[in-house]
Amino acid sequence: xxxxxxxxxxxxxxxxxxxxxxxxxxxxxxxxxxxxxxxxxxxxxxxxxxxxxxxxxxxxxxxxxxxxxxxxxxxxxxxxxxxxxxxxxxxxxxxxxxxxxxxxxxxxxxxxxxxxxxxxxxxxxxxxxxxxxxxxxxxxxxxxxxxxxxxxxxxxxxxxxxxxxxxxxxxxxxxxxxxxxxxxxxxxxxxxxxxxxxxxxxxxxxxxxxxxxxxxxxxxxxxxxxxxxxxxxxxxxxxxxxxxxxxxxxxxxxxxxxxxxxxxxxxxxxxxxxxxxxxxxxxxxxxxxxxxxxxxxxxxxxxxxxxxxxxxxxxxxxxxxxxxxxxxxxxxxxxxxxxxxxxxxxxxxxxxxxxxxxxxxxxxxxxxxxxxxxxxxxxx
Length: 380
Hints:
Layout: H1 2-10, H2 14-22, H3 26-37, H4 56-59, H5 63-71, E1 75-76, E2 85-86, H6 90-99, H7 109-115, H8 135-151, E3 156-161, E4 165-166, E5 198-206, E6 211-217, H9 223-241, E7 247-252, H10 263-276, E8 279-284, H11 294-306, H12 315-323, E9 332-338, H13 350-353, E10 358-360, E11 368-371
Parallel strand pairs: 3-7, 6-9, 7-8
Antiparallel strand pairs: 1-2, 3-5, 4-5, 5-6, 8-11, 10-11
Helix pairs in contact: 1-2, 1-3, 9-10
């Protein structure tokens, strides 16, 4: 455009003079003069259609075919969908293409993949293995039971064990703000400190009160430990909050120390019912649906967020971090140490199971049942 401006200023013979001085073709200067005469004709693009270097796929007719052939062993996804993604790096793909005679660099691979409708992709948790046909029906059953208990002002608690945590200067997931250049230094390897050991946070979440209790165990996560956590919640919080309590409803996962098939869990619940005089209704979530348990997304997630990037160096630190977990909606959590030992491998014989005062519900009795005190004739 500047060469055209100089040619216009020079007048007659200006195009030839400007071409000699700038080495720009006369035809290019002529188009520039046309643009100067009609500035409104100028668009966003200066380059004419078809200008610039031709596409690699145009210069090399077999490039895309060979690239797609290379991708086939590494391609993941649904073959019936147009959108696909690859696991090989750009460098590896470019190297493989050069090995079979194509002139291509790694920087060109993303554009070629886009032409083939490939893209980067992340894992997405959407598949549920072994979905039970009565999964939704069990959810509805649990909801109906919860509404029944809450309408009668009887407590409903959600229980579960959080994963075991190493005590010591170990890396804790997440990140948090701190002075620049002064990260918290932790051990390189996550080998258990035999003196400090591990802790097992077992949670009890009161659904109606939006309130939690965590029993911090230092031994094994067994059925007896799970039931003792419920016992501690009753003694510390439940009895005072629900003065007219006669029944207690527990929602729990189907596995772990409070599993629906675990005999030790049921016998420990029977002892709790005998001690307290309460009828204990239990409803287990179907297999593969532990994340629907309310304690997971109403309490445990906030604990994890509160202690992110904080090494759990001692029992005191763990208790303090859990107890200081709050939310804008008013969640509060009480945390206490359970110093008791809970041996593994306890076998419950058939004769002891026969003494349980257990009533199984008509709908999925393996998931839904109630345990009443053995010294009482009270029924549900």
